[in-house]
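thought: fold this chain, then report.
action: predict
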Amino acid sequence: MAFSLNDPDDGELLSEINMIPLIDVMLVLLIVFLITIPVMKHAVPVELPKAAAQQQAPAPEAVRLTIDADGRYRWNDAPLSDAELATRLAEAAAQDPQPALQLYGDRAARYERVAQALAAAQRAGLHSIGFITEQP
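observation:
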C-alpha cells in the first residue's frame, strides 16, 4: 500500500515499513513462550515400581491348507486325504496357542470342497481361519 506525504497528486510515495504490528506479534510470542516453557519442564517426581516379565512364547506358524482345482487338499504343500484332514485339524486345534489356518482355494475348485474344509475346521475347534487371495 502506498501513502503520499502532502498532496495526493504529488506522485511521491512513502516507502517506510510500519514496524509496530511486527513488534506486537513478537511481544505476544515472547510472552507465550515465557509462560509455556516452565510448564513443559515441570514434572511430577514419581518413583516407579520395578518388575520383571517373562518373555512371551512366539506364536505358532500358520498352517496352509490348499485346495487345488481338482478338489484335493494339501497341508503345508504336502498331499492330504479327506480322512487325514480331520485328524490334522484336531491336532492343530489342540495346540496352545492355536495356529492360524490359512485357506488357499483355487478359483476353479468346487465350492463344496471349500465348505467341507471350513466345516471340518469348525468341528475341530479352530478359531482363526483366513482366506488368502491375490491382488487383481
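thought: worth noting. The helical segments are 20-41, 82-94, 111-124.
final: C-alpha cells above.
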